[in-house]
Amino acid sequence: MDANATTPLLPEVLEAMRPWLLESFGNASSIHQHGQQARAAVEHARESVARLLNCRESEIVFTSGGTESDNMAVFGVVQQGGLVKPGDHVITSSIEHHAVLHAAERLQERGIDVTFLPVSSEGTIDPEDVRRALRPNTMLISVMMANNETGVIQPVEEIGRIAQEADVWFHTDAVQATGKLPIDVKAIGCDLLSISGHKMHAPQGTGVLYVRRGTRIEPLFFGGAHERQRRAGTENVAGIVGLGKAAEIAGDALRDGTMDRVAALRDRLERGILARVEDCAVNGAAAPRVPNTTNLRFDNLEGEALVIALDLKGLAVSGGSACMSGATEPSHVLTAMGLVSTSARASLRFSLTKLNTEDEIDAALELVPAAVNRLRELAPVNAGTLG
Ligand code: PLP
Known about the structure:
14 helices; single chain; binds pyridoxal-5'-phosphate; alpha/beta; 7-stranded mixed beta sheet; 4-stranded antiparallel beta sheet; 42% helix
């Protein structure tokens, strides 16, 4: 139940990739038939991804994953000729993934002013805060579509309208939204949108940056003319084919009720734990959330100990803290929502895919209360909640 960390490759995705790993091995830039076959496979995948996002094929750039897509969006818009103009301004939020946050901090070190917008106690960004933060020299707004820790959905369409009115480039990190929510880049009004393959049953090391036609973006890599001069490097044909297949399957799952079933599983898990465990609450409960994620706070408990206890029983989840330079730091997302460090550390993320079953939910509903009670007895942690 840690799908927001990564998802398994679907058998259909592996089958689509298999010929490109074994029999056909052309370089998609080669003129001969092997190259042309690889090119056709890449372009077919591009069509599938474009359909999922409601954009043109030429607006899809294949990358190595969400991190590269985010970096390309952030640096690509703000830099010109590899240089930044000190004093230029970027707006982002305090709950972005580190792929955006650390890129923005790097820009800051180079003289760019960055506004890190706060969030409400439910984990949402107020579009009016975006409007108020705008300056004449704001170059970019980067606000994620759904948060990876809480699943909270951000008001990207309103932010898109504000960006368009102000004539500022708008990037959204949709890594945790893809396949979980319908995505229409035109409705969002974004210029740039990031996707990661491995969060949607495609292989790790694959991703996409949607780049709206007319968006001025500088490449991160220099070399060949691949991806219309936007991303140099021989295409990862098998990975791209897998991503294309996963995009088709993700589109189907949004239409055929599969994601509604995932939402029902998540709701049953969440309600079941709340009913069985005392002093437990959902972080971001009142906000709109993606269907697969719940972030639960178990007061008076060390979350990391619970992650380990559950892992020993075969249940994989993730905690509200991250290991940074050898020390565990409370999650920047949960602390931005106003949780004190002990409460952030006492929080766990459960994230599902369509492959999770009712039986697995039943098992979790047995395991989690038992593990929480045991840990609270063994090593009580006294904690406040909000601060
Ligand atoms: N953005 C978000 C919201 C994520 O959750 C992740 C991965 O956890 C990334 C970006 C980075 O994606 P990747 O692992 O493909 O580099």
